[in-house]
Amino acid sequence: MAECIVCNVCEHPQKYENALESKEIYSNVRKFKDEKFTVWRCSNCHSLHSKEDVNLDDYYEHYPLKQHTVNYATRCAYRNRLRLLRKHGLKKEHTIIDIGCGQGVFVLFLQQCGYKAFGYDPYVEKYADKKNLDNLYDIVTSYEAIEHANQPVEFFRQFVRCLRQDGLVVIGTPNADKIDLSDPVEFSMELHQPYHRHILSERALVNLGLNAGLEIVKVYHRFYFDTLYPMVNTRLLKAYVRCAGNYFDAMFEKPRFGLLLTSPQLLFYFFAGYFFPPKGHITVFFRMKPGT
Ligand SMILES: [Zn+2]
User: How far is the CA of 204 from the centre of ligand 1 (A)?
Assistant: First the structure.
């Protein structure tokens, strides 16, 4: 891969030298905390790009998300994902594939709920078999994945290739429009360097879908992690991670209840964080246009 100095997600690609803004951002993974990366904003579509060419294999080898499992918090958050999928038509007889599924935690959750769910992730041995992409599905989901892709347009195309007529594509990802580069501490989870290669603006994401022959069904700006269950909301998660040193790792390590019990702010958000939703995330439901 070469360094990214031209926007690769917009119709009038702008260059790094004409960036609307750029900033050196430190990695929020503890092992790489002293490394910084240039993030710049396209002056046309306002998407964010990580500029330097890095060997991501090294970074993924020590990726904290490898410890991801089904637990209380993921179950609550995934119930939220499932609620929206059902609202938009998911039925038990449908097939669903989660692309960029990581350790397959959501796939497993759906299977446990009785759905015919499959996963694909080229970086995880269990889900790396491309055969699953040869089938057609009623619903294709991809959460927190497209921002990791070096080529978001190509990544998006594979959603459409395995989509059945009238099928749904659901993409959840950070929203570049809501990320303030001048406050990298607040937005460390969304910026997540160097793993997030291209963070799309709402316009750029919507255009990817339209250009692929899809139409918009609904855009949600609330993160699926926002629930009314105690402890499971984005405001608390962000505040907790920040108190724990602002490392991504904190989300997958043993919970530090001592931090919670000694912080009035965290205790407040533990129960009421849902009512203070941070902005910085977007989920778009697309549908294949009839006759496409
Ligand atoms: Zn652009």
Answer: 7
Task: Give the residue extent of every domain in the chain.
Answer: 16-58, 64-226+280-288, 234-274
Is the backbone peptide bond immediately before 13 cis, with ω within 30 degrees of 0? no
Answer whether residue 150 shows pLDDT above 90. Answer: yes
Kindly report the CATH class assigned to 64-226+280-288: alpha beta
Nearest-Å Rg of the Cα atoms of the chain is 19
Predicted confidence (pLDDT) per residue in 187-221, tens digit: 999 999 999 999 999 999 999 999 999 999 999 99
Please tell me the pTM assigned to this model. 0.94
Tell how far the Cα of 63 is from the centroid of ligand 1, in angstroms: 28
Q: What is the Cα–Cα distance from 88 to 82, expressed in whole angstroms?
A: 10
State how far Cα 157 lies from the chain centre.
17
Q: Among 189, 144, 140, 149, which Cα is nearest to 167's?
A: 140
Do residues 17 and 65 touch, judged by C-beta distance below 8 A? Answer: no
Rounded CA-CA distance 44/204 in Å is 10
Q: How far is the CA of 9 from the centre of ligand 1 (A)?
A: 6
Question: Distance (Å, rounded) from C-alpha 182 to C-alpha 21?
Answer: 9
**Which are the contacts of 8, defined by CB distance < 8 A and separation ≥ 6?**
49, 151, 152, 153, 198
